[in-house]
Design goal:
The chain is of the alpha+beta class. It has one domain: Arc Repressor Mutant, subunit A (Orthogonal Bundle). Helix 1 crosses helix 3. It is elongated, with a radius of gyration of 12 Å.
């Protein structure tokens, strides 16, 4: 199978999709757990979450040192 070279925007969108699907399956989750479980490389977890936040797909709430994320 040939390797597909995705653009940076496509990689961010893919990361956003993985986060969205994870939240759909698991419900409210800390951002650190999402990053650990999905093992997104570099800063793609942050970029993907930002994408979802910009599209108003998620709620993000600071709870002490933890950041909780849920679908809207």
């Amino acid at each position: 199978m040939a390797k597909v070279n995705l653009t940076l925007e496509e990689k961010i969108g893919f990361s956003a999709g993985e986060i969205y699907n994870y939240l759909n399956e698991h419900g409210v989750t800390s951002f650190s757990k999402i990053k650990k479980d999905l093992d997104l490389k570099g800063n793609f977890a942050e970029l993907g979450l930002g994408w979802l936040a910009r599209e108003s797909k998620v709620d993000i709430e600071q709870k002490g040192p933890s950041v909780k994320v849920s679908l809207r």
